[in-house]
Design goal:
The complex is a heterodimer.
Chain A (H helix, E strand, L loop, with lengths): L1 H27 L5 E3 L2 E4 L10 H7 L13 H36 L1 H14 L4 H9 L5 E3 L2 E2 L2 H25 L4 H9 L4 H39 L5 H10 L6 H27 L9
Antiparallel strand pairs in A: 1-2, 3-4
Chain B lengths: L10 H17 E3 L20 E6 L9 H8 L2 H4 L2 E6 L7 H6 L5 E4 L1 H9 L4 E5 L7 E6 L14 E4 L6 H9 L4 H4 L1 E4 L5 H4 L5 E5 L3 H6 L15 E5 H4 L7 E5 L6 H23 L1 H10 L6 H15 L11 H13 L21 H12 L22
Parallel strand pairs in B: 2-3, 2-4, 7-8
Antiparallel strand pairs in B: 4-11, 5-11, 6-9, 6-10
Classes of the chains: A mainly alpha, B alpha/beta.
Amino acid sequence: MGGRWRSALMTAAGFVLLVLLWELAKLVLPDAGVSVGDTRVLPRTDDAAMPHVWTVLAQLGRPEVAVPGARLVGVAVAAAALFTLGLALGGLVLGAVLGMVLALVMLRFELVERAALPYVVLSQTVPLIAIAPLVAGWGGKIAILGWSWQPWASVMVISSYLAFFPVAVGMLRGLSSPIRADVELFRAMAAGWWTTLLRLRLPASVPHLLPALRLATAAAVVGAIVAEISTGTRGGIGRLIIEYAQSATGDPSRMYAAILGAAVLGLVAAGAVGLLDVGLRRYRGSVR
Amino acid sequence: MSRRPMLSRRPLRVFAVAAALAVSVAACTTTPEGGGSDTSGGGGAAAGGNQKVTLQLQWFVQGQFAGYLAAVDQGFYTDQGLDVEIKEGGVDIVPQTVLAQGQADYAIAWVPKALASREQGAGITDVAQVFQRSGTYQVSFADSGIASPADLRGKKVGNWGFGNEFELFAGMTGAGITPATDVTLVQQQFDMQALLSGEIDAAQAMSYNEYAQVLEATNPDTGQLYQPSDFTVIDWNDVGTAMLQDAIWANTERLSDPAYQETTVKFIAASLKGWAYCRDNLESCRDIVVKAGSTLGASHQLWQINEVNKLIWPAPSGAGLIDQAAWDRTVQVARTAVNADGQTVLTQDPDPEAFSNEYVQQALDLLKADGVDVVGSSYQPTEVTLNPGGA
């Protein structure tokens, strides 16, 4: 467990370093930033562009709107981050299942692999902003077994669209990673396709799958946030960032508070997937 | 490394997979157009016997859409037998496309942008011109000496692009400036920092939003908020290149359906009643918008509704009625003004079906019979005091 503590400590140290760097930049660099000719190479550092860290934190304790009964910015950010976390994890599960099934099908039928793999790669070159309105358009048009499509479901689908890719590719790589001798041993012992899959290929895929899942988590979080921004889905952190950015002219600290929430959300999601690491530890060393 | 020594020779399994896919696709059914409801012209009957109607906005709920939110909150739609669901916009949501594709019954959109979509095949009709004036400004610091479009020559001019910039380009062209060569064009962000930090000399701003943002920022020289006297504003209504903005758009094809026609009249009537409510009850209307979930500051929101009211009221011929002259000017600018990419909004005049006063006239008659003031001849805007950051 020592290593785990150390990595947690290093994460915290990294965060502190980032805060110090931010404040140092504000202290040292000129307010107007640094420009070479007409091109700015370093950003403006005045309070209107880079608020102090404590201004951002203080923002969390202020009411969102100056009317009685309004919730605090901190509460709003936390609620939004939690909402997006749910959608991102939903998208991750959806994407992971899809990616694994796709990998299995591609493993089983070489024809499918040859036909589908280029499209799997191609799918990631289609810009998200092109897909988002399309998927958002499902709202009110599609009903699945009597359940009508909700805006958050669009966000989840878009998030899974980004998440399935690393899983599909990583899983396929993992499933086909056992060396020839192992595969031939299984064949010599008259093991069928399913037995080989369960006893050999799946365990062997774990070391490839875990990093793929980490990538997929990051992609799912980014996908969920971008999809929220793109479709304007209420409740999530992406929407909140845009909302707060609208009033960033005088004081951008509130927007940074929301961005901070998004960063914490990413860390939590990565941590949650890190737990999988622990659960699947016994397979980690099978191919090394 | 060898991969998969055991190749499948069993097409049966392929068939099984295909069959499974087919079943799962069949489980997803599509509902007919009209915002998730069955369509007897604008939607079917909801639980309470009201007709379900969806309205697609251009952006998040804010004061710009106060009238529709008030009509929901005050039950004006319900009074007309409508159960209205308001769909918020987003960065990539194009309301007129959503409408044309049948995912909403009505949409709010700027006239030039909607006409551009129409030219590309979107079957939509302007049925009520809610904002009769343009809310777009070009804002500069007073000491920059920019008081008219001609003064923009040689300056750094911010603009939003994406079809929001044509009034500015028409204004500059009208003043004898060639936008592509005589000014430095800068793509503007959502916020107004570029103007305040001096990166651009003149910034595009909506009277009801970005202009308020600069007045909510602190002037570092005085320690107080910036004052209107610190700025000069070019108002395109005065220059004569103003284009029509927020209008209620309906689906052209469905307008041939008598039931949808009737719904349209009711929808416009209740919406205009909502706007009349916001004219007469500014603060209550602000509270409705905040309650609807807008996180913009309270004073900013009040400013926004007050400014939007100015774009609607007074409406001498009746709110929502499309003024032929303003329409023609919009079309003319849309056909002639060339933006930074060398494009005009429209390449040909829109056909007569692009707008119709038929339904808004019926709606106005309904409201007048009801005793609602749809002209607002005595309307006076209030003075809104903005707080720092719009709080």
